[in-house]
Design goal:
- The protein is an alpha+beta fold and about 375 residues long.
- The protein contains 15 helices and nine strands.
- Strands 5-6-7-8-9 form a five-stranded antiparallel sheet, sandwiched between helices. Strands 1-2 form a two-stranded antiparallel ribbon.
- The chain is globular.
- It starts with a helix and ends in a 5-residue tail after the last helix.
């Protein structure tokens, strides 16, 4: 994560005040907070007062809430925003029920959790974020909305470590997150750490895809101004050396064919490596990628690797790679798809972010780990399920 924090810090350092304000507004929305509350939360100490603030925001507009009694049964009562609970309670997700911390242990346990924040964030921010989410879920310090408070606090901690925060609402409802949180224990939070690690890289990719032109006065923008600023930013961006990128794509080509063939039980054909030379061709690829929820810059080189699925099904696997978003960060975005050629499948294609700050062997190993989960996603909602 040090390399990712360095990448984000380097890009943020070159942003204008107006651009940083737009980023802050976006970060607040992803954390589920209004801009003023997000600003106050980022500036606040990690203490019980901060937890109360987050619970107040998570409970806004709610007079009543559902909580799980110690036997796991749901009951409805006052929301009690910002107040630590005083009655026994359970942690319940789906049909999983665990007895929560006793009311008398809440303050001491939470103080210890927050007291360790600075040292643990410096050592391993993802592991500490997992500890925060697990601890608050099992503590159940408030009547309700505890998992949301946990994710809000984790986002605050990750931001403090120079990393992107989490899209709180999306993560809270994500079935793999729910499964990882249920499986986590005090001794083993490995699945939760892996989930959060992937979610942080996904958040960084979404940020790189979203970033726009670093103009100082957006109210005076014209389209020509924006294009000129973007061209200048792309020219100055630090990029992965072409030899490293070619090696990453060559390794990816081998891995995708082998792994996808094994999962499908049907051989993929030889790889077709298409590098569109004309802007109109790259624009067509970028538009198709945008329909899959992934944004590539058509002004920069794009690679499309394709493998036909055997059996005359008319379906192919595709790995698309190009400059992320508008190309201003120098990062490379890749995404995996399984569909008839040029067709648009449902949902957002799983994406991978490659940055110059990460050593090539580390980047390649991370791609290999990413690929397994990406194949799961494209197979789960792909055309072969129809």
């Amino acid at each position: 994560m040090r390399e990712l924090a360095a990448f984000i810090g380097r890009i943020a350092a070159g942003q204008s005040a107006a651009a940083r304000a737009l980023v802050d507004e976006r970060d607040a929305a992803r954390a589920g907070l209004d801009a003023n509350t997000w600003h106050a939360v980022r500036a606040a100490e990690l203490d019980l007062a901060l937890l109360r603030t987050l619970h107040g925001a998570a409970s806004a507009g709610q007079d009543v809430a559902r909580r799980a009694r110690s036997d796991g049964q749901w009951i409805v009562g006052p929301a009690s925003a910002r107040q630590l609970r005083t009655k026994p309670q359970a942690f319940r997700l789906r049909d999983h029920v665990e007895l929560a911390w006793p009311p008398g242990a809440l303050k001491g346990g939470l103080v210890r959790l927050l007291r360790d924040a600075h040292a643990e964030l410096a050592a391993d921010p993802v592991a500490y974020a997992a500890r925060v989410v697990w601890s608050i879920s099992r503590a159940q310090p408030f009547i309700a909305r505890n998992e949301r408070v946990a994710l809000m606090l984790a986002s605050r901690c990750l931001h403090g470590a120079g990393l992107p925060g989490l899209p709180v609402e999306d993560v809270e409802r994500d079935p793999p997150f729910i499964a990882a949180l249920i499986a986590a224990t005090a001794e083993d939070r490995g699945a939760l750490v892996r989930y959060l690690d992937a979610a942080i890289w996904d958040a960084a990719l979404a940020w790189a895809e979203w970033l726009g032109a670093p103009l100082a006065e957006p109210s005076r923008w014209t389209l020509a101004d924006e294009h000129a600023a973007l061209e200048d930013a792309r020219r100055r961006a630090s990029r992965i050396p072409q030899t490293e990128l070619d090696a990453l794509l060559a390794g990816a080509a081998r891995q995708v064919r082998t792994a996808m063939s094994a999962r499908l039980g049907a051989e993929l054909g030889p790889c077709e490596d298409h590098r569109p030379a004309e802007h109109a061709q790259r624009l067509a690829v970028a538009v198709a990628s945008a329909h899959r929820g992934r944004r590539l810059c058509p002004h920069e080189p794009i690679a499309v690797l394709r493998w036909p699925v055997a059996g005359g099904l008319g379906v192919e696997a595709a790995l698309v790679a190009g400059a992320a978003g508008r190309g201003v960060t120098g990062a490379i975005a890749m995404h995996l798809a399984l569909a008839p050629r040029d067709a648009i499948g449902p949902g957002t294609a799983p994406g991978f972010l490659a940055i110059v700050d990460e050593p090539a062997p580390v980047r390649a190993a991370r791609f290999e780990r990413w690929l397994d989960a990406a194949i799961d996603k494209v197979l789960d909602r792909g055309p072969l399920r129809a």
